[in-house]
Amino acid sequence: MNDRRTTLSLLPGAAAFAGPAANERRLSTLGALGRIIIGGTPPADDPAHFGGSIPFITPTDLDGRRTIDSAARTLTELGARLVGASRVPNGSVLLTCIGADLGKTACAGVDAAINQQLAALVVDPPNCPRYVYYDLRSRQRELRSAAGGSAQPLLTKSGLVRIPIVLPPPRRQQAIVEALGALDDKVELNHRLCDTLAEIAGARFRAQFVDVSPPSDWKRVRLGELLDLDKGLSYRGELLGDSGMRLLGLGDFGARPELDVDDFPRRYAGRHQPRHMIVPGDLLIANTDLTQRRELLGAPLRVPDLGESPMLFSHHAFAVRFLPGRECWREFVYFALQQPEFRARAAGFAAGTTVLSLPRDAVLDHVIALPPERLRLAFIEVTRPLLARIDHARQESRALVELRDHLLPGLVSGTLAPPRVGGPRAVP
Hints:
By secondary structure, this protein is α+β, with helices and mostly antiparallel strands.
């Protein structure tokens, strides 16, 4: 027994434990918990495979939600039959197993199919899938290490089955899930609030500036007349770690133009120039897409307040630098970059064979119509409070996420007893 407790205490991601629950925990592996499914994609050259009713989950859909109950892409029954081995049931634990997002986790909220960048763990009873999800989400760095330090890290199925995991008794697993789930419930409530506020602001922009014919007193200008672009830092992967400034990269862009509350960018200890630095409120534009689907090219990102400034950004993005006297157009440009016209232009200018890139001129030469000052002021009078409320909700959510991740090792190790939400301790 002492040898087993020593092994548990040395397991990466699991704290040493000397409490009364130590004898109840056991060391297992992901492969012993149930089935591991690796995803796949039907041939992309046949449109009959896509656009049906079956959610087709990809890493882009792992956007900070605890449960993925919808996906940006779908498959038809024909497409799903071609990747039948990639079908996953509701409740599966999803894990990104390749690339910059390696280690991101979520739970499937519907029966779905997954692409080849994802793995799914179908956890057999009596173990709790949500407990496995919480355990893995706290160990992203460990999973990255297991994948190796190459430019394109990869966790294979054979590697996944050997990943160790500490398992408390099922009753305790459920109590841990309930305790952490209460925090996540508030995070998801904030997430929905932010989505609603962003939709309101976006709808106001479209109604006021897009869905109307510009009157004669509006001025058509190139973005290059308002701003310039700096390309980010070409970094060395071996210098990413726990020291230095935070580095925002391509993995921080997603379907929403805001950083996910679970995403704290890694730190970079290498050299950089002043042009590689950004502060909260700055705008970034993704200039690279590794998928050939052009989903991220031209996507904007508003730099969040993570409690430290300045930060760095990678060469996969441009930083927007407003020209003197043009800073007042920040909010207007932010929403203009989200419009389908610009995103289609960015996709059309994509260059490259395996990795797509967006030229600077494709951004700077994009033409927009600037309204008179009175309309701009009326817009920001409504929009700035909405963006400020989004920022406040996201800061609150990040504090809750930090609390959750701080509690998780103690709950897993047994040094903390999970409470019953709204009542006494659930498990002694």
